[in-house]
Amino acid sequence: MSDIIDKSDRQRLVAAIQKAEKNTSGEIRIHIENTCPEELMDRAAFLFEKLKMHKTELRNGVLFYLAMKDRVFAVLGDAGINSKVPEGFWDNIKAEMTTLFKNDDPIGAIETGVLMAGEQLQSHFPYQSDDVNELSDEISFGK
Length: 143
Fold this sequence. Notes:
Elements: H1 7-21, E1 27-33, H2 40-50, E2 61-67, E3 72-77, H3 79-82, H4 89-102, H5 106-124, E4 140-141
Parallel strand pairs: 1-2, 1-4
Antiparallel strand pairs: 2-3
């Protein structure tokens, strides 16, 4: 189902993940599908677990879930990051992303959200010299 977005957009988003993770031990994943087959946050939580994002050492993974045809998205952080970020942090990211989605820039919306999450992860989970990339930077796709 990787035909949801083209190759250059995939490369742009992977580059955003790599840039966001460069100065943090945090992990960011993007999962994109056409439609959301269940309640939005239930689907995001299911994929968070399926992608083993809860298995990072510091519990500092962030999932960006998007159902493109349904025009819905969720940003889901693990327990470690949620215990550190300020209240409303995810709302700020979602608001920025929503503005770009409304301007018909879905790739820019995702890229902006990823980079904003990376900045916050950097301040709470700085890069360590022995850091290991615990999760793939590749985008995963659903139906």
